[in-house]
Design a protein that fits this description.
Elements: H1 5-25, H2 36-72
Length: about 80
């Protein structure tokens, strides 16, 4: 059987995130005190955070390209 190293890395990340969450909040995702709407709100907020992180990276790449273009005289 072939092992997919990327999938294994994701599995390790998931386990680590679970352990961090349990240590931080004292509950697992098996908790029952949240309604479906609450879970969706949490997921939505995480997506917004992800969009911000992605945009931050894109802006950084664009800024670095502009600097490189100026250095090379491609402006």
């Amino acid at each position: 059987m072939t092992i997919d190293s990327v999938v294994e890395a994701v599995r390790a990340d998931l386990l680590r995130r679970s352990q961090i969450g349990i240590a931080k909040y004292g509950v697992s995702l098996d908790r029952t005190d949240l309604k479906l709407r609450d879970w969706l709100q949490h997921a939505y907020e995480e997506c917004l955070d992800q969009a911000n992180y992605l945009k931050r990276c894109i802006v950084t790449i664009d800024e670095e390209k502009r600097v490189d273009d100026v250095i090379r005289g491609d402006d």
